[in-house]
Amino acid sequence: MRIVLVGAGYVGLVSGACFADFGHVVTCVDNDAAKIDALRAGRIPIYEPGLDELVEKNLAEERLNFSTDLKAAMADAEAVFIAVGTPSRRGDGHADLSHVYTVAREIARSIDDFVVVATKSTVPVGTGDAVERIIRETNPDADFAVVSNPEFLREGAAITDFKRPDRIVIGTDDERARVVMGEVYRPLYLNQAPLLFTARRTSELIKYAANAFLAMKITFINEIADLCEATGADVQEVARGIGLDNRIGSKFLHAGPGYGGSCFPKDTQALVVTAQDAATPLRLVETTIAVNDTRKRAMARKVTAACGGKVLGKTIAVLGLTFKPNTDDMREAPAVSIVRALQDAGARVHAYDPAGMDQARQLLDDVVFAASAYDCAEGADALVIVTEWDAFRALDFKRLAEIMRGRIVVDLRNIYQPEEIERHGFVYASIGRTNAQSRSAYVLRETEAEEVPAGAAGE
Questions:
Q1: In whole angstroms, what is the distance from residue 117 CA to residue 119 CA?
Q2: Which residues of 25-51 are buried (b: 16+ CB within 10 A; e: fewer)?
Q3: Which of 170, 227, 292, 422 has its CA 20 to 30 A from that of 361?
Q4: Is 228 a catalytic residue?
Q5: Does residue 342 belong to any structural domain of this protein?
Q6: Helix 436-450 and helix 200-231, axial crossing angle in degrees, nearest 10
Q7: Where does a domain end: 198, 228, 258?
């Protein structure tokens, strides 16, 4: 099949490369000429494991092309996917659909024969109706069908997610579109990936509902972690205990500094305002957003507490800046809020990330960016692990003890066991776990609460 992806960003580039690897002939179109020139030369503008090899392979085999000319690309296309950004609209939280609508008009002017227009961008309920109306108004003679086909890609594992998906959601009531979309994804039949055909508006809402539920699950375990710290329980064991229940599942039950990235923050906000417009407020999602926003700066207070109650004049080494490992994405990353809060409290911050340094430099001021984890830790009073990159999972704590000024480790991802770090002479703080002394203190408080002074019952 001949397929066009409009938008050579994260979703468009990954989707286009994977479609080409299935054997389709794919053209990724973008109005950024410099980006297209770079992609033609094999230079990838984003960090995603395995993507550079996939693009290089399919470029060489002439199944993947890059262009700025949409009309030429669509000459023989059977399906064109809209894969442009839908960031939060400034001021009100709605998804900004201006790029989607602009692309819809450009597609309309380029339609010759029947084509399926599939929206892969994350869009609010009813966007497909608007896209269909725009195309029909722009080109009344166009023969087309508008389909919703949301993506469910995790940054850092996008290629695996695309090729081995849990499900493929396709929203359409047009039989011709069903046939075309079935052929687009036919190579995945061997992987037994279920194709869920549904109404277009339902498909659009599935994407938002999925992201909101996962965001709530993360926020739930983060609040449980706070309760674990206060009561002497272990959040990792709690998460395992509830995650073994098949109705709950173990994924997204890892306590940490809060969610970030390009999807959860903007998608939960867009879902909330959509629900408010429909007079059906989603209180759980509203609370999830509020709790997550406050949690990020609360992590800086956790670091301060581990440092004896103040960080004024101290050097804090921050390992990990991106919102998750295996990406260079700094959008809504907890590290940004944590670093700024530590700076507000008077700390000097050193930072290192395996892939996100260029992006971080654009967001963070007055930070000393290091060349490695150990360069970052040199002379630091405390070490804070914010992102769980593999490179941070086996640090040499004997070496850290020699180069750091202080002996404090704050592990916001729980990638180490307390005993493992404490035997090297470090004070160790993590999320939702307490040391033996803290657990004993809680037991003492319980005992004291149960004691009733003589005569109190009759007063």
A1: 7
A2: bbbbbbbeeebbeebeeeebebbbbeb
A3: 292
A4: no
A5: yes
A6: 80
A7: 198
| Residue 457: inside a domain | no
What per-residue confidence (pLDDT) applies to 435? 60
The predicted model gives 310-317 an average pLDDT of 98
Residue 193 and residue 217 share a domain: no
What CATH number is attached to the domain comprising 29? 3.40.50.720
Q: Rounded CA gap, 180 and 407, in Å?
A: 61
Position 452 scores a pLDDT of 41
Token output for 97? 């659909």
Domains contained in the chain, number:
2
pLDDT tens digit string along 44-72? 999 999 999 999 999 999 999 999 999 99
Residues 152, 138: Cα–Cα separation, whole Å: 31
Mean confidence (pLDDT) of the chain: 93
Provide the domain limits for residue 289. 212-438
DSSP string, 222-253: HHHHHHHHHHT--HHHHHHHHHTSTTT-STT-
User: Is residue 453 scored above 80 in pLDDT?
Assistant: no
Q: Are residues 50 and 26 in the same domain?
A: yes
> Is the pTM here over 0.70, yes or no?
yes
Span 122-154, pLDDT tens digits: 999 999 999 999 999 999 999 999 999 999 999
Q: Does the pLDDT value for residue 444 go beyond 60?
A: no
User: Does residue 318 sit in the same domain as residue 363?
Assistant: yes
Catalytic: which of 18, 228, 263, 307? Answer: 263
